[in-house]
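Researcher: Sequence recovery benchmark, item below. Answer with residues only.
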């Protein structure tokens, strides 16, 4: 078993990994940029090492500094979390060459699944359904002709892409060439890889993904599926497990496809195979994420498995600690992403300082966060602050519990999407489980709040802060020994 693990990340995922390491009796090392010196993940870890960088993100992407931190602290394993270096094959290879265990998949799998074109061809080769598509192998004109044969609407996607970057919807022929050029330019800018491909656009699709674990020796299990269809800008907002309104037969087919692909890739550690599911019940391979997903807690709550602990065991060479027949889904779990943003202003990221935070509590309520009162929320990082997860015996129970928990959640000082998420839980169509990736657009009128002026927003936040006794004490009470001196002048 690994003895000490460095978490090459920050925020809520770093705190999440540290929790499992503590439960396993394994030492933890946090890394941090100066701006994060008082962040919760630094306080939670057994040890911490400061990283330098002109901007905060540069520090967390500096491979040499991370390896030096491992050597300095004696860490024999690195957990990359998600984002940053988590799907960087070069980083995984460098870590392992330094004699340190990378708590993630083998380098070959990261490279294979990191290329959308290659991974699709690999999936098709092994009998996994893929949507009709075309890629550019010759001239732009030839590519356009091949794309037109698929039929409209089309989706132009970056080969090395993710997060909606380098992705364009094309509804008619005269939009195609310009969309290809724009998508390729965006892909080059974000991923230094301008390759794109065209794919049939599934109308009103659902986004279904399957959690898998592999030991790298051919043994693979799935931990069932997650529904991730509530999205904005191709990024997930609400996730749940099991997927609502899905037959047992379809669930088995999707999970079986995920396992077959994972075995074919000789995959090691945790991964997620993602699919697009059409209204006709046909599903297509989308991509494989070679890391732990943001939404992994919903799987943990319905399956009863600590995925981070399993990642560490596999990286330690212990293999899988259970068989497929040992696993089953029990109850229902829903996760929402708490983001510093303004949903009413096209989900514009927001900044500020957290002035007051009261977390919801109760049976079946879980908070995964890495934030604290007084912490500055800056543009330096992604807008996601934390995750709230609720478990119930049924989906209706889980939705009701999440609605109540969001109502009890107080986070002031920076605009968030908490109220917006609460309105999703109250939406009757959401409650029915009739979901697809265009849900937020279709129901925007009923989900968005009336816009407040800057003065109105300030007044509401100030009133709430001043109404809280703890805040008043911290903000206005005179500390000792000055309080006992009385009236005085300096």
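Model:
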């Amino acid at each position: 078993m690994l003895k000490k693990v460095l978490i090459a990340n920050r925020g809520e995922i770093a705190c999440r990994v540290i929790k499992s390491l503590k439960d396993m009796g394994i030492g933890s090392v946090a890394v941090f940029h100066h701006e994060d010196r008082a962040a919760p993940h630094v306080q939670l870890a057994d040890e911490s090492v400061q990283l330098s960088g002109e901007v905060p993100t540069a520090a967390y992407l500096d491979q040499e500094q991370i390896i030096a931190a491992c050597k300095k602290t004696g860490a024999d394993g690195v957990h990359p979390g998600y984002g940053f270096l988590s799907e960087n094959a070069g980083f995984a290879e460098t870590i392992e060459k330094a004699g340190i265990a990378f708590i993630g998949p083998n380098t070959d799998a990261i490279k294979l699944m990191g290329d959308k074109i290659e991974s699709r061809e690999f999936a098709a080769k092994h009998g996994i359904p893929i949507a009709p598509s075309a890629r550019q192998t010759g001239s732009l004109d030839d590519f356009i002709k091949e794309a037109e044969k698929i039929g409209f609407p089309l989706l132009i996607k970056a080969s090395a892409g993710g997060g909606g970057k380098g992705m364009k919807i094309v509804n008619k022929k005269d939009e195609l060439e310009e969309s290809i050029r724009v998508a390729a330019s965006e892909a080059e800018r974000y991923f230094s890889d301008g390759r794109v491909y065209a794919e049939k656009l599934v109308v009103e699709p659902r986004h279904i993904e399957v959690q898998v674990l592999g030991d790298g020796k051919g043994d693979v299990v799935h931990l069932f599926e997650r529904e991730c269809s509530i999205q904005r800008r191709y990024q997930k907002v609400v996730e749940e497990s099991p997927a609502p309104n899905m037959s047992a037969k379809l669930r088995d087919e999707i999970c079986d496809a995920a396992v077959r692909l994972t075995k074919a890739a000789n995959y090691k550690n945790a991964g997620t195979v993602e699919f697009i599911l059409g209204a006709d019940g046909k599903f297509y391979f989308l991509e494989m994420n070679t890391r732990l997903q943001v939404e992994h807690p919903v799987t943990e709550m319905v399956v009863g498995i600590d995925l981070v602990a399993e990642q560490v065991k596999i990286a330690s060479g212990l293999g899988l600690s259970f068989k497929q027949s040992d696993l089953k889904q029990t109850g229902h779990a829903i996760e929402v992403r708490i983001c510093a943003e303004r949903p009413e202003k096209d989900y514009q990221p927001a900044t500020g300082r957290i002035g007051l935070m009261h977390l919801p509590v109760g049976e079946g309520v879980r908070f995964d966060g890495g934030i604290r009162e007084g912490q500055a929320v800056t543009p330096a990082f992604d807008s996601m602050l934390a995750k709230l997860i609720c478990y119930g015996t049924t989906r209706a129970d889980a939705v009701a519990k999440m609605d109540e928990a969001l109502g009890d959640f107080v986070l002031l000082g920076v605009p968030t999407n908490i109220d917006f998420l609460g309105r999703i839980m109250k939406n009757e169509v959401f409650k029915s489980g009739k979901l697809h990736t265009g849900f937020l657009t279709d129901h925007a009128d009923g989900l968005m709040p009336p816009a407040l002026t800057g003065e109105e927003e300030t007044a509401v936040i100030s009133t709430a802060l001043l109404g809280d006794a703890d805040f008043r004490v911290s903000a206005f009470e005179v500390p000792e020994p000055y309080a006992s001196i009385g009236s005085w002048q300096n």
